[in-house]
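Here we describe the complex-level prediction in full. Unlike the single-chain runs in Section 2.1, the two entities below were treated as one system.
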Amino acid sequence: DIQMTQSPSTLSASVGDRVTITCRASQSISSWLAWYQQKPGKAPKLLIYKASSLESGVPSRFSGSGSGTEFTLTISSLQPDDFATYYCQQYNSYSLFTFGPGTKVDIK
Amino acid sequence: QITLKESGPTLVKPTQTLTLTCTFSGFSLSTSGVGVGWIRQPPGKALEWLALIYWDDDKRYSPSLKSRLTITKDTSKNQVVLTMTNMDPVDTATYYCAHSGTVTSFDYWGQGTLVTVSS
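The structure predicted for the assembly as a whole is:
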């Protein structure tokens, strides 16, 4: 099975900061990676799919990059609404989907 | 507008079988490329994918839980049903169903339903 790791596990930042979260896969997944945002008590929200495609309606301050085994989610200027937990998720045709352990972004 | 909603018991006893229903609207599960999946999240923990059923009735399961899961669809009722056998307290979690329109990710999610496993 493909394993996913995320770093850091917790990130303290201020409004206006540029924030980068890294996700690594245990083997190459091409560009089959998605990013989700989850707030307490709510369902996850898709932000990025196929590593760098922005989901409709998601603010342009969110961007994704990477391929193979290393991926990043960047928030160009952190807004108050962005304090949340972020998960990466890989897709492969054998074991289908695996989520990362999550990165919590909290207020510095 | 795509919406999904999970329903089922909030409390099950150990060894019992859990049956959850996802009722959706705004899309058809007979449309090529569409899938509906189940994902769970234990309290305070990460998301875990469980199962997915495609428009063509192809079914996929998490390798670690495959022996305990069954996913089915009723296209006429716009429902997807997940059964999980031999429930254990470690299966206590919020269970979500979600729409997959891109095959590789989940773009619409239900609100989730908390299932507690306890005697």
